[in-house]
Write a sequence for this structure.
């Protein structure tokens, strides 16, 4: 019973929580031409933030299920150098991969022992990785919302 409640709450948190916007809402109706903008000399664009979310979430997913997984090199391989996607197809594929990887991770949450240590880790568990994904994504999604506000492209 308690495990079911925990899983339900983790799924809500991973999908955007109840106290903050999720990625889907943060990028909804976002004009393509704004993806590469870096207002007020911010260090990254919305595209770079979304790409970073994709890479980091994929890394945490792979780590959680594959003892042979090699993480990208920090920080160079976690952040794209390009400020904008090359085309709308790349943007759509990136959003789709984030969604697909998140759904795959949620399957781990539903089917694995949340508290067991990941055998190839150093104390991590699926529960810890779930909190880390949710925390990391929420942090960068908030940055996306701020950039959208600065660009005048957020909800009023």
């Amino acid at each position: 019973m308690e495990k079911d409640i925990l899983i339900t709450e983790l799924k809500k948190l991973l999908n955007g929580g109840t106290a903050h916007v999720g990625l889907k809402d943060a990028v909804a109706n976002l004009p393509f031409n704004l993806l590469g903008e870096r207002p007020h000399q911010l260090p990254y664009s919305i595209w770079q933030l979304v790409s970073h979310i994709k890479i980091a979430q994929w890394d945490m997913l792979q780590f959680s299920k594959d003892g042979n997984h090699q993480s990208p090199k920090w920080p160079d391989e976690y952040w794209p150098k390009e400020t904008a996607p090359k085309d709308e197809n790349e943007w759509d594929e990136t959003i789709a991969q984030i969604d697909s990887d998140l759904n795959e991770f949620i399957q781990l949450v539903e089917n694995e022992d949340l508290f067991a240590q990941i055998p190839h880790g150093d104390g991590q568990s699926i529960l810890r990785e779930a909190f880390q994904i949710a925390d990391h994504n929420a942090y960068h999604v908030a940055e996306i919302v701020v950039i959208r506000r600065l660009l005048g492209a957020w909800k009023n």
Notes: The chain has a mean pLDDT of 96. Residues 2-150 form a domain with the Four Helix Bundle (Hemerythrin (Met), subunit A) fold (CATH 1.20.120.450).
